[in-house]
Give the backbone structure.
Amino acid sequence: MSHSIGGTGGGKIRLHPLPPDGFNPRVASPLELRRYGLPQRPDPAIRPQLAARWDQIFSRKLTYITPTFRSMHELLPRVQLRHPRQDLVTFPLPTWSGAVVHAPDNETFTWVLGQWNVPDVAPPAEGQGDWYSVAWIGIDGNADVTQIGTLQSVSADASGNLSKTCYAWYEWFPNSFAAITNLPVSFGDTMLGLICMESPTEAFFNLLNLTSGIHAGFTFTAPDGTVSLENQAEWILERPEIGSVNPPLPNFGAVYFDSAMGGHGLDFLADGGTDTVLNIVENGVTVATTTVETPTLIKIAYTGLPPFAAGQLLSYGDDGTSGNVADPVVVGFGGWADFEFLFAGQNVADENRIYAVNQNGQLLSYGDAGTPGNVSNPVIVGFGGWQEFEFLFAGQNGAGENRIYAVDQNGQLLSYGDAGTPGNVSNPVIVGFGGWQEFEFLFAGRNLAGENRIYAVDQNGQLLSYGDAGTPGNVSDPMVVGFGGWLQFKFLFASRNLAGENRIYAVDQNGQLLSYGDAGTPGNVSDPVVVGLPSWLEYKFLFGGANASGENRIYAVVA
């Protein structure tokens, strides 16, 4: 007899006894098939295609196992599968690629079938990181999804060493998500999945590794409060949620969902490739593209990272939430990697400007209207010698005056004003008398109280915060707002996000863009928000500013 065990994260699993040695499903009665957790043979007079597929599967010798389970949160503590609760008729989506079929009026899906290859995966780009993908079939409602599939992941450490894993799992979103730990899965295997809804709160799962011939079946009762609407069926390749963000996909090559069908008993049948096709879009570029090969064969191909060209100037917005910094505007079409310095600030007239130092040592001032390719035709506000500085950045002093700061070869911190006219930037004030060339990072920004500060990272990895009253030699006696570890970053700068919050941005060794707040007290700068997912190591320049409309932006130049 079947027996129940506690579920993993909600709901209950009911296991089925294993068939005896020599069991032949093709001659078994419907009661025997149900007892052993196997799908019924479709009536060939009604659905000959389904009956032929069933015969093909069960004509071979299979190995039946009693599945064991482990919570995915134990295996991958940061993993959550979170699915868009929007109308999936929308063609591009940030996390799903594949096919969806919506039930006609007065109809429901009570089963979904699909066969897919377990794709081998590789990092999408050079560098350290973790990349995940999941392939699955499912029956979905507006507040739940019942699904079974495989997870494929790859990780690269700082030395470029790779580790990869794949395994089977099931989920009844939002409260149950578990790996099937004793069903072997390898890259390149062919999996066959079937979900049958016994009722809106009970599902009958079958998962068969066609390559190895190993089968696992079980029945699952939904967590309390979860009821399936049974209103659509899916065949999906997904970017799963990791630590509240959706990292970029690995390069998975291609996934094929064959036998992509769903229906209600034998009365209603729908092919997977006849309704809605979805593509995953990252940063405005389709990175997983779905093609309907036949009505029941769906191809999902990895089509690559966003193809930004070297030397382009990109403009991003940050709304302050996890992983939101994406979809840039290319505001400069090329040549931006050739500059010696690149930063943003305001001139004396409070106009938002992008400053650059070219190879002739001239200081250029650009405006950004926020539209593609508009950043051009600079004003030469400094006629020469600007390439000789150790640091160059812009900010405001304690009096609210807009300044350009520079560190000369003697280690002095200089403060310039820019009136916006050709060649006017000259005659600096020496606001710091020496030693400023020894810092690893130097930039200006504001803390959370709106105080204008100059930030520096010393050779001990401490983040220091200085005030500038605008008078000679006054910049001294810093506060240590970050106690250590600030040397590890590739980029470090300050800006405001779209909500007007003053932030310190950093790119860590995993390529993530982090956002910190500074309350202005010793050692307070910690616990960042990961606002940009891995890939931020690829830029030559990264800095914050505002465009001509006053929109706060993060600017990047493709290396």
Summary: The helical segments are 30-35, 48-58, 72-75. DSSP finds three helices and 42 strands in the chain. The chain has a mean pLDDT of 89.
